[in-house]
Amino acid sequence: MAQPDTVRATIESAPIPHLGAKKTSAKILLTTVSREPGLYDYYRENAPENFRWRFRMPRRISFGLRFLRQNLPELRILEYPTRAEFSRVLEEGWDAVGFSFYLEETPRILQMAEDARRAGVRQLWAGNYGALTPAVQTDFDKVFTSYAEEDVAQLLGKRIEFIRHPPLVSEFRLPGGWPFPVGILFTARGCSFQCTFCQTTAFAPRPRAIPLEAIERAIQFYASHGVQYVLILDENFGNLPQHAEAVIELLARYRIRWLVQSRVDLFLRNFDRWMELGMEGALFGIESFHQDVLKQIRKNEKVDASRELAERLNRCGLYAHGYYIIGFPTETPEAIREDLRTLASMRLDVTQITIVTPHPRTAMWSEVETAHGIAQNDWGQFDTKHLVWNHPHCAPGVLESLLKEGFELCYGADWMPRVVRKFTSRRWVKRDLLGLLSSPVAARLAEPRRLPYFPDN
């Protein structure tokens, strides 16, 4: 039997004014960027070039579109299609096609939008963080600049009582290729902090909790399908303390182990309690080793706190995943090179290194544009791996070279044995090494066509 999202969706509800006052139904397709030149893999993009022995987690599903489809089952979604597949689906005829994308995907999305116009689509919609860019908003008829379930429902003449969390499973691969499934969980969306480089300050500046009922339903699904690990991808888990506590108690009740993204200060404040209730690792922002830079970007944390957290994670055998930025306006190549050596000394399991990249609608965009000027007008270069503005101390190409040096330092000869030793030791202590033997079977759930939606009731 075909999955619900493979069936052409017809929306029969109140008229949609933007699609014409006489219409009583509309066909809506929501899609992502095409998969050419290949599926995006976060770990490939944050490791040395051609580094084979690394983690892998290719992006096969769209979390945002899955949320929309779970809450508005009338919609049809198309996740990371080939251009040929997208063209074939366009032939079915649509009243509106919506695109969910990030800033660096903009050039390819605009090409897909042209394809849709030529196919006779009456309305084009834009959503996700890429839709925040004022310069591209005029290419679309409707723009969604935050989480869009309620806004889309209103367009369709419907009302959402509360947000439902869909099952979200990604396939995670260990160095060497052994697969196991990881459930993705969002417990709250939005962030109240005001870091100057982050688009969430414009996209969702006030955190809103996902209802516990919806979260428990997702956790039950993971537990019943052999998914032993969950990755919590809130912008800052713990930003809503009572809600976060209720979530981790649910995870402990279902014996699900979890990794989580949050701020360093929240990790240090809650470390022992979270580890007691199943925390297996932390994803956290380091950003800089200089207090004046942290103050400038409104990252209100102590500069030594990230090193303290990394030491605690390593001491306890927990996964340590840090985010670091190079190329702030005051930095010189020599200073950056020294900081990268410090970063490597933290012995993280995964290190994301990015180049300072101003994004539209952020405070950093205004500051950099005014003081230095934006040098690049190709949105495809705004992937945090290229210098796109006029840096006062780093000539073009220098930061890109330093980025490669940083990855080579952080993934040196000792990385592989250290990570394998840490992982196997932790799994031995938790007595679940044997559980990994069956993980390839459970990982099949990560295939988009196998991953179901919850029924409406």
Labels describing this entry:
five-stranded parallel sheet; about 450 residues; seven-stranded mixed sheet; globular; 16 strands; alpha/beta; 2 domains; pyruvate-formate lyase- activating enzyme; 17 helices; single chain; disordered N terminus; Rossmann fold
Brief sketch in words of this structure:
With 457 residues, this protein is an alpha/beta fold. It is 35% helix and 16% strand. The chain has helices at 42-45, 63-71, 83-90, 106-118, 134-137, 149-155, 200-203, 212-224, 241-253, 264-276, 291-296, 305-316, 333-345, 363-371, 398-410, 415-429, 439-443, and strands at 11-12, 25-26, 28-31, 76-78, 96-100, 123-127, 142-143, 169-173, 179-185, 188-189, 208-209, 229-232, 257-262, 279-287, 319-326, 350-355.
Largest sheet: 7 strands, mixed
Determine the structural class based on helices, strands and strand pairing: alpha/beta
**Low-pLDDT runs:** 1-15, 20-24
CATH architectural designation of the largest domain: Alpha-Beta Horseshoe
Kindly report the name of the CATH homologous superfamily of the largest domain: tm_1862 like domain
Could you walk me through the main structural features you see in this protein, from its secondary elements to its overall organization?
The strands form 4 sheets. The protein has a 7-stranded mixed β-sheet. It has 457 residues and is an alpha/beta fold. The two termini are 20 Å apart. Helices cover 35% and strands 16% of the residues. A hairpin with a 5-residue loop joins strand 8 and strand 9 (179-185).
